[in-house]
Automatic annotation (TrEMBL):
Residue numbers spanned by region Disordered: 47-69
Family affiliation: Belongs to the G protein gamma family.
Segments forming domain G protein gamma: 1-69
Protein name per UniProt: Guanine nucleotide-binding protein subunit gamma
Localization in the cell: Cell membrane
Subunit structure: G proteins are composed of 3 units; alpha, beta and gamma. G proteins are composed of 3 units, alpha, beta and gamma.
Extent of Basic and acidic residues compositional bias: 53-69
This protein's encoding gene: GNGT2
Organism name: Vulpes vulpes
Keyword Cytoplasm found: no
UniProt function note: Guanine nucleotide-binding proteins (G proteins) are involved as a modulator or transducer in various transmembrane signaling systems. The beta and gamma chains are required for the GTPase activity, for replacement of GDP by GTP, and for G protein-effector interaction.
InterPro entries given in the database record: G-protein_gamma, G-protein_gamma-like_dom, GGL_sf
GO cellular component: heterotrimeric G-protein complex
Keywords: Cell membrane, Lipoprotein, Membrane, Methylation, Prenylation, Transducer
Principal cellular location given in the protein's record: membrane
Amino acid sequence: MAQELSEKELLKMEVEQLKKEVRNPRALISKTGKEIKDYVEAEAGNDPLLKGIPEDKNPFKEKGGCMIS
């Protein structure tokens, strides 16, 4: 699709995208970084990658072994 558009049309699309992006609310990384860190630390106890999955609730646990005779 981009190959079919002229350079002028591509630049217009880029300007429109930049106009949309400039309206996005911005926040300081010092504030949002702390919020993300606090959230991750608060939810660490519920994270199955850190805590593990109980054997009785693990849907991927092998039900039985393979028997070769």
